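Hello Y.,

Per our agreement to keep a running log of every chain we model this quarter, I'm adding this entry. I've kept the format consistent with earlier entries: sequence first, then predicted structure.
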Amino acid sequence: MKLLTTKPVLLMGSSAILLVITAIYLLTIGTADISAPTVFSIITHKIFGMPNPDIPMPEQIIVWNFRWQRVALAMLVGSCLAVSGTCFQTMFKNPLADPFILGVSSGAALGAAIAIVSGHTELMIILAFIGAILSLSIVYFLGQSFLYPSDQQLLLAGVACGAMLNAMLSALMAIHSQQMQMIVFWLMGSLTNYVDSLKPLVAIVGICIIIVMVYASDLDIIALGDEDAKFLGVDVNKVKPLLLIVTSLMTGACVSVSGIIGFIGLIIPHIVRKIAGSSHIVLLPLSAIFGAIFLLAADGLTRTVPQLASLPVGVVTALFGGPFFFYILRVAGRRVS
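Predicted structure for the entry above:
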């Protein structure tokens, strides 16, 4: 364990290689099996313009127009949720915090449902994103309205706001029962909405992760406690709201595209901390890599296991995340007692 923490570059390099291998493997599987060398040749040709041997056009279309975009979306969403979860757990000093604790996903889900029932599915991403930002604004306002605001009160405000938004979503589904199946499928998480949303998502997630990385050293100090962080020169009243907005922004963007895919932001930060320690300059990029690998693996299960073929990927992540949540809850309870 100590060897790993003393060589973060080697660890990140080997993790990145594992991510590439996982992605290439997923590009080879599906209704049409395509060899790994063929996949590698197609990708290098499309991205870097390298010479392309005589590969049939149908295989190029399958790999580049369908599988590659789905794999890219999985990597983006997995990375985003894992990085957001890492930041939330540090800022709130709560091992159970994840990107959905502040009601961001509920707001995005309500916005997407409104787009579906109104018949304007082309606006689903925009309305889901607006819903996520509005829910964050409400939670932050409620959390700061207490006489002595604290991180735990902000979490409670998020739970309350999420419950209210879920009730509104349930009412909307009951009124528009004809669209209920489509709404429910979206709520369970899916990686099929990638054609028009991949490029803007790359821009949003990329910029947000860069901003978070800039404040990696501040997160190390904030983890010691707000009072200690202020004493050590961190402007907590500026850094925490900024990171809260940035992480919620990229989470809302991902939820607006993929639906609700839970527990990645809960599971991955705990695993990475066990492997690489708590320094955020290492923790954040490793969380992004492992988050991408985790969601790719979950999506791969739905494509390779016949019994899981009809399940949205969000259901698969929940099957792993539920038991892990109880494990963390049990460990946290032991520490308190």
